[in-house]
Design goal:
- 40% of the residues lie in helices and 10% in strands.
- The chain is of the alpha/beta class and 207 residues long.
- α3 crosses α8 and α5 packs parallel to α6.
- The strands form two sheets. It has a five-stranded parallel beta sheet, covered by helices on one side.
- It is globular and about 45 Å long.
- α5 links the parallel β1 and β2.
């Protein structure tokens, strides 16, 4: 079976406008995200301004230098679903070994309860799949500062926000905003998250 390709780039969110396709004008990122405010009950405008301000940081260039030409899968959760994401990434590298050396997935943890389990799993994946030029998982043992966090969202080739259950998740909106300036990478979103129904163009999955 051939290796799966990363999903084709597509917008992560769509406007709820009911205009007909023949007469509607493609909405801007700002209008689409701000339009979601009435659904999710958070101050989307503040998120938009914060992400845009942070993306001026040179930390994006530092991330690109760190990962080189590797495809980056970002799963920004620091507690919920971290172990499941890592096991899924491990399965990808085992089932499709041709992706080894081509794709990486940073792991974040700031939960003392999960720290040992995550560290052991990261060590197992890296010990099994790494080589001299490739480290599959870079493990960050704390939450990232906002500038670093937003830079990681912009650098990503694929976003995966796949919590088993969640309500309002602002990270999905932050990912969408961060990607506007660059390649508009796709987003995989858990269908069990409350915000998923308002982001119909995300690739929805059953985690």
């Amino acid at each position: 079976m051939p290796a799966p390709a990363l999903p084709a780039n597509k917008p992560c969110c769509s406007s709820s406008s009911t205009s007909s396709p023949s007469t509607s004008v493609a909405p801007t990122t700002a209008s689409m995200v701000l339009n979601a405010e009435k659904y999710v009950g958070v101050d989307v405008h503040d998120h938009f301004v914060a992400v845009k301000h942070s993306l001026m940081s040179p930390k994006l260039d530092a991330l690109r230098m760190l990962y080189g030409d590797k495809k980056i899968i970002v799963g920004p959760d620091v507690a919920k679903g971290v172990l499941q994401k890592l096991r899924t990434f491990e399965k990808l590298l085992h089932d499709y070994p041709e992706w080894r050396g081509e794709v990486t997935s940073p792991a974040l943890t700031d939960s003392p309860k999960l720290e040992q389990q995550v560290s052991e799993l990261v060590a197992h994946i890296n010990g099994d799949c790494r080589n001299l030029h490739f480290i599959p998982v870079h493990h960050y043992h704390q939450s990232l500062k906002k500038d670093d966090f937003y830079a990681s969202l912009e650098a990503a080739d694929l976003g995966a926000i796949t919590r088993l259950r969640d309500g309002v998740n602002t990270t999905s909106m932050e990912f969408f905003i961060a990607q506007e300036r660059t390649k508009k990478s796709p987003l995989v979103l858990s269908e069990f998250m409350g915000i998923s129904q308002h982001m119909s163009e995300a690739l929805q999955a059953d985690p």
